[in-house]
Structures are given as C-alpha cells and as structure tokens.
From TrEMBL, chain A:
Gene3D superfamilies: 1.20.1260.10. This is Phenylacetate-CoA oxygenase subunit PaaC. It comes from Spongiibacter thalassae. SUPFAM superfamilies: Ferritin-like. InterPro entries: Aromatic_CoA_ox/epox, Ferritin-like, Ferritin-like_SF, PaaA_PaaC, PaaC. It comes from the Bacteria.
Length: 254, 173
C-alpha cells in the first residue's frame, strides 16, 4: 500500500478515535454524578467501552503515522484545532435526558456505521468494528429503554427529553457528511459511506420516538466543523480537564 | 425438538483455539498459564475465559496472544502482567504478550465447566438471548434485571424474586 493511502487511513482512524475518545470522556463525567448508583455504573461502563474503542483506533492511527506517535501523544498532545471529532460528541453532558438522547441517537448511528465498517478492506478497521459492534448492540438496548421510560414517564421527564432532542438535532446532519478524504477511502473500500446511512438511521429513530411519544424534529438548523478543527467552545474545556496531567508533567507514565 | 436437546455445537473459532492447544509443541507453557486467572473472577483461568488464544516460541522468546473481553476492559493489562510473572517464575525471561482483536471474543467460547465454576462463585452464567437466567443462590428463574451494567464490563446486575438476593450475571456477548 502506498504512503499516501496510509496517510489517509491514518487520518480516518484518527477521526474515529477522536469521536470515541471525546464521547467516552463526556460519559465518564457522570462518574459519581449519576441519578442513582446503577445508572452511574452503566454510564461509566459505556464510557470504558468508548475509551477502549478510542485506544484501538488511535493506536492504529499512530502506527500508520509513525515517527514516535502513540495513542497517548495523539490523545494528550493535540489541541482543539487538531482534534477532528464531530461536534455532537463534545457538547457538555447536560442533564440525564440530554445524555440519554445523545446516547440513543449515537447508538442507532453506530449500529449502522460499525456494521458497515466490518466490511472494510482494511482488516484492522474491520476488526475494531467487529469488536465494538457487539458492545454497541448492548448499549442500544439500554438507551432505547431509557428513551421510552423518559418519554412515557412524567410530564417533566417527557418535556426534558423533548428539549434535549431539539437541542441535539442540528448536530446530527454532520454524522452523515462525507468529505474529500472519506470519498477517496470509500472508493477504495476502506471507509463507510455515511451519507448512505441517514435514511435508515432516521426511520429507526422515528420508530422509537413514536413509541416514546416524543416528536423527532427536522434539522432545520445545522452546525458543522468538527472534522476541520472548527469546534464549539466546549472542547477546549474538555481537553483542559482530560489533558491536565500530561500538560503539567509531560511524558509521565504510570 | 427443542434447541436444548440438540448436541451443542462448538463455535469454529473455539474449535480452532482448542486445536491450537492440543497440537502445540509447548504444552507445558499452556499448562503453566492455567494458573493465570481472570482478576475479576478469580476462579476462571484465562484459558477457560477464552482470552488466551495462542502460544508460540521462537528462539527463546515466548509470544502469548490474548484477546480482550470488552474494548475497554481494564483487566486485560492485569492479565498481561500476570502472564509475564507466571512465566518468569518458571524461567521464561523473554515473554511478549500481544493483543488480538479478531476474532472478537464471545461468551460462547466458554465451556460448560467454566459456567459451573461461575455458578459456584455466585455469578449466573450467560444464557442465549439473556433468557432463562437462573439465580446462583437458589436456582430460581424468577429473576429481574436491576441494571444492564454491574461491577465490571462483563456483568449485569439482577435480583432474584424468590430469595430476594441480588446477583451478578455474566453477560452474553
Ligand atoms: Zn434466588
């Protein structure tokens, strides 16, 4: 395989790693803050799965990048402009309804995305996808159940869920954007054609929203920029927290 | 005829894994590693768990391949360290532990014997589609899910409606 191709696969693996890492970090913020003990454990367990997924993607990206890059240099030594996660992952955790709605929307997306990535011509990406897919199926069982519980719960829980979805919806179109890099990798059989997943994603979500008695809004406004380093103001705060130890004691290990 | 009366089929990856051990020229190393247990369920060895995948020896370097249960399972590092320590104690100084993601780990690789050990330890073993879960204390099947996630990534939390005791369930994956 040529180096040009390797560079592109590295950038792609890096993106997927960034998405997983930032999502895992946001979930980890629920540690000791969950509404009750069982959900505290659930969110931190899901966080662990995402951080594990991030490690697999970033380790692979680092291998392809070479020159001393490791999963840790990628995670801890890049600033906002170099982070390529999509914006939906970096939004603050919000309340439990917001975290639940985001998790559900992303679980439905991941289910489709990882299923497709299992067929990648790149055997490492396919292996990471196969591993992660099993975990995502399980995450979805829980997040879907919570959508129904909140939607069919009290007036307050329903209203909080509806508000959360309206705050999130404009960040979902970015999940389905394909840029030049991904277009290239799609034609090489390596990347997933995200754009092709949108319809199935929407109909799966609508079905659950119907059952939960909540409206699935149209994305009349939309925000993007994560892949090119144009982030919300929230990412800097997240990185300051996540990278603090490595910034204070560069290269420290335990 | 119900599913239970059929002869249980071994998944192909598990068959291959057992063949690798059976045909291995370094049977003594496989046997040594039976002493390395899952740090979170210390009655099950890494072999029984399905994590230990292969052992090869070249020159004086032992390469041990393991596969993680869950992507973020923190126990994998402890297992790798325990493998190195166990082999070092037997005189193998050059041990290389490598992680494999494919084929992805599944609970269907665990033997009936391993499941029995889980029950004795107080953990309900995985069931197909998570149905027919039995309380490890009183064997009742009248149980309810308390939480999808328990104390570790591989377990969910249940409660028995017959004896009221809470218990861990080893998730089907
Ligand atoms: Zn019982």
């Amino acid at each position: 395989m040529s180096n040009v191709a390797n560079e592109k696969i590295a950038a792609y693996a890096n993106r997927l790693g960034d998405d997983s890492l930032i999502h895992g970090h946001r979930l980890s913020e629920w540690c000791s803050n969950g509404p009750f003990l069982e959900e505290d454990l659930a969110m931190t367990n899901v966080a662990l799965d995402y951080i594990g997924r991030a490690r697999n993607f970033l380790t692979y990206a680092a291998e392809l990048i070479g020159g001393g890059a490791t999963e840790d240099t990628l995670a801890y030594e890049r600033d906002c402009l170099e982070y390529t996660n999509l914006l939906i992952y970096e939004l603050p955790k919000g309340d439990f309804a917001f975290t639940t709605a985001r998790q559900y929307l992303l679980d439905e997306f991941e289910l489709l995305f990882l299923t497709a990535l299992c067929n990648s011509e790149d055997s490492t990406l396919a292996a990471v996808a196969e591993k992660s897919l099993k975990e995502t199926r399980y995450h979805l069982r829980r997040s879907k159940e919570w959508m129904l519980r909140l939607g069919n719960g009290t007036e307050e829980s329903k209203e909080k869920l509806q508000t959360a979805v309206e705050q999130l919806i404009g960040y979902t179109p970015e999940l389905f954007e394909v840029d030049a890099l991904e277009k290239d990798l799609i034609s090489g059989g390596i990347a997933v054609d995200r754009a092709g997943l949108e319809e199935s994603w929407r109909s799966a979500c609508e079905k659950t929203f119907d059952e939960a008695g909540v409206n699935m809004p149209q994305a009349v406004w939309r925000v993007k920029g994560g892949r090119t380093g144009f982030h919300t103001e929230h990412l800097g705060h997240l990185l300051a927290d996540m990278q603090f130890v490595q910034r204070a004691y560069p290269g420290c290990q335990w | 005829m119900s599913d239970e009366t059929l002869i249980p089929m071994l998944p192909i990856e598990e068959f291959e894994r057992r063949e690798r051990r059976r045909m291995s020229p370094v049977a003594d190393i496989w046997d040594l590693l039976d002493r390395v247990k899952d740090p979170e369920v210390p009655v099950i060895s890494i072999w029984e768990l399905g994590v230990l995948q292969d052992i090869t020896v070249q020159e004086d370097v032992v390469t041990v391949s393991i596969t993680p249960t869950y992507s973020g399972c923190p126990a994998i590092n402890a297992m790798a360290e325990d493998i190195v320590d166990c082999l070092a104690a037997a005189g193998y100084d050059h041990v290389n532990v490598q992680t494999r993601l494919q084929p992805a780990w599944t609970t269907s690789w665990m033997s009936a014997e391993a499941k029995r050990k889980l029950v004795d330890y107080g953990i309900a073993p995985m069931q197909k589609d998570d149905e027919g879960i039995q309380c490890p204390h009183c064997r009742s099947v009248d149980v309810k899910l308390v939480s999808y996630f328990g104390s570790t990534a591989c377990k969910a939390l249940y409660q028995c409606k017959s004896c009221d005791e809470p218990f861990d369930y080893f998730k089907n994956l």
